[in-house]
Design a protein that fits this description.
Bound molecules: S-adenosylmethionine
Low-confidence stretches: 1-48
Distance between the termini: 32 Å
Number of helices: 14
CATH topology of the largest domain: Rossmann fold
Largest sheet: 8 strands, mixed
Shape: globular
Strand order of the largest sheet: 1-4-3-2-5-6-8-7
Strand content: 5-15%
Mean pLDDT: 86
Helix content: 25-40%
Order of helices and strands: EHHEHEHEHEHHHHHHHEHEHE
CATH class of the largest domain: Alpha Beta
Radius of gyration: 21 Å
Number of domains: 2
Length: about 350
């Protein structure tokens, strides 16, 4: 088993300014099911089930068009739902290398005792480096099932949820990076407002940031989910019916401390570089910001027909595309959403590597 480096990528590659979030990974309705009144459960009473219902299981694995003796990457192991399905499709020569930056995902991967399987503890933006260390420079398919898993949100001690009063952490990788509490201890009011606005689409971002910084500067640092949720609730005067006022702020801070968009933007070109001809890339996104990065990347790599009419070079004379989009976006069926409401904002995009070098 390989323990990956705990380096996090640079912050710069995705502009905060262009960010808008339309859908949350764990749906807002679902998070809102528990009101602030019932939020302060002690950690010991939390639902710490180690369960994750895999989203778009059949569809995503089918999209990889698996060659039984191929090499595949599951970049987001979680609880291994997709990984196990991929392994079922591989023969004795096939190989699956899985990544996750969460230590509990790493622990859970130990249940898979299979010579063809290797688990790597790393953020996926280090994928190419980690694979090179394993002597792998080309793979036949890569799957990314983005965002957080149910065990992460359901384990109160991780600090992802305002349903429980717990230390304000929210790191996917418990072994590195700054917690939300640490971020709030040193950020500026302006930066905080930008994070909350751009990653949470929160119209009260400025007021929330001001309230948080005022508390901190008055000698009351925000160190628990309960404290944060209370401050937000006292600031947000209008929110969607049934929605917890803290939903958007929690989402924004989670995306920020985990550098979720930077990770994705850094990983897309690596997937392109790693895929063998006809190799497939399948990405499941859970909010519009992620999906936009994937869509744009595939479009930029695939399209040669977006040139202006009087562009002085013929499309055929330009370097040929290295990726082609496969089919339309795939969303969970009504049946899946009913069975697993957390799947409802999922969007699967699939692309295939062409022969062009
Ligand atoms: C939605 S869950 C994946 C669930 C998985 N497909 C299954 O069926 O169990 C996403 C997982 O990806 C991991 N993850 C998210 N971003 C990551 C990143 N940048 N690098 C590595 N792992 C990441 C999270 O820790 C989480 O375990």
């Amino acid at each position: 088993m390989i323990k990956g480096v705990n380096r996090t990528p640079t912050q710069a590659s995705v502009s905060l300014k262009s960010a808008t979030v339309k859908q949350a990974h764990i749906s807002e309705k679902e998070l809102a099911e528990t009101s602030l009144a019932s939020m302060s459960l002690p950690v010991s009473q939390s639902n710490s089930e180690n369960m994750h219902t895999t989203v778009l299981l059949e569809e995503a694995v089918h999209a990889l068009a698996i060659k039984p003796s191929g090499i595949y990457v599951d970049a987001t192991f979680g609880r291994g739902g997709h990984s196990k399905k991929i392994l079922e499709k591989l023969d004795g020569n096939g190989r699956l290398i899985a990544f996750d930056r969460d230590l509990s995902a790493l622990e859970s991967s130990k249940s898979i005792q299979d010579q063809r399987f290797l688990m790597v503890h790393s953020h996926f933006a280090a994928m190419q480096t980690r694979l090179a260390e394993l002597g792998v420079s080309q793979v036949d398919g890569i799957l990314l099932d983005l965002g957080i898993s149910s065990p992460q949100i359901d384990d109160a001690s991780r600090g992802f949820s305002f349903r429980y009063d717990a230390p304000l952490d929210m790191r996917m990788d418990q072994s590195s990076g700054q917690t939300v509490a640490e971020f709030l201890s040193h950020t500026t009011e302006q930066h905080l407002a930008e994070v909350i606005k751009n990653y949470g689409e929160e119209r009260f971002a400025k007021q929330i940031a001001r309230a948080i910084i005022t508390e901190r500067n008055d000698g009351r640092p925000i160190t628990t989910t309960g404290e944060l949720a209370k401050i937000v609730a006292s600031t947000v005067t209008r929110f969607e019916p049934g929605q917890n006022p803290a939903t958007r702020t929690f989402q924004a801070l989670r995306i920020y401390v985990n550098q979720e968009l930077e990770e994705l933007a850094l990983t897309m070109p690596q997937c392109l570089a790693l895929l063998a001809p006809q190799g497939r890339l399948a990405v499941i996104s859970f909010h519009s910001l992620e999906d936009r990065i994937v869509k744009q990347f595939v479009r930029d790599q695939a399209n040669r027909d977006d040139l202006p009419p009087n562009f002085p070079v013929r499309a055929a004379d330009l370097p040929q595309p290295k990726l082609k989009g496969v089919g339309k976006t795939i969303k969970p069926s009504a049946k899946e959403v009913k069975a697993n409401p957390r799947s409802r904002s999922a969007v699967l995009r699939v692309a295939e590597r062409t022969e062009v070098v």
